[in-house]
Write a structure and sequence with these properties.
Largest sheet: none
Structural class: mainly alpha
Radius of gyration: 16 Å
Number of helices: 4
Distance between the termini: 27 Å
């Protein structure tokens, strides 16, 4: 999880000089893009391939779990940034 701390600190340093309303919109745009990518995976049927891959290769379950945890942490980070800028 150290890499997440580095990514979050880079995000904070990158947006430090921008006004708070711009930081708010950047966080919302990133959150919408993440949600849109999940939506497109499920609507285009690619979730079937992910499910088959996880079932056929049991070693992928920890990887999927880690990716899910990281994605959830990024979403929570962006939601906190949106709340701070409100």
């Amino acid at each position: 999880m150290n890499i997440l701390v580095q990514i979050f600190s880079f995000y904070d340093k990158l947006l430090l000089g921008l006004p708070t309303n711009i930081q708010f919109f950047v966080a919302i745009i990133l959150l919408v893009l993440i949600c849109w990518s999940f939506y497109s995976i499920f609507t285009h049927g690619h979730w079937i391939f992910i499910a088959i891959f996880v079932i056929l290769f049991p070693g992928t379950w920890p990887a999927i779990k880690t990716i899910g945890t990281i994605t959830w942490q990024v979403i929570l980070f962006l939601l906190v940034r949106i709340q701070i800028n409100l």
